[in-house]
Design a protein that fits this description.
Number of strands: 7
Largest sheet: 7 strands, antiparallel
Order of helices and strands: HEHEEEEHHEE
Shape: globular
Strand order of the largest sheet: 1-2-3-4-5-6-7
Oligomer: single chain
Radius of gyration: 14 Å
Strand content: 25-35%
Structural class: alpha+beta
Length: about 140
Amino acid sequence: MTPEQIDKIVLIGKKLLSAGWASRKTNDLFRKGLWLPQEAIFDYTNSSTHIIILYCAEKEKVDLILEDDTGRLNFVVCVENLLENLLSYIVLNQEEISTLNYREFITYIVKTYPQKTFLFKDNQMYRLKNKYINPPLT
């Protein structure tokens, strides 16, 4: 793992922990040298939705998962050098985002990361476009 990749993992931890997110125990295993497909996994629950962030340093991608009683949405964003921007936007909206009102939230992400934002559903990646976004829940 490169120093830049480690810096990004540290950035994720600092940003999310300071905003009230919980670190998973797998993050400790990674720090102890165990290889994991996602080097950083964090959880946050607002009044209606459980939000999960998984970060893969090798692919420079963030899985953003929204779960509640109505279903689950798994968005994937290839962040490259814009990781901090994405984290800031997620933290800014963490209290309001849900599987019922995600459209405006994810539309902003699609516009910020054109050609790099996907919906992961049924083991396939579907590229999201700058149009009305309404994927079905799983």
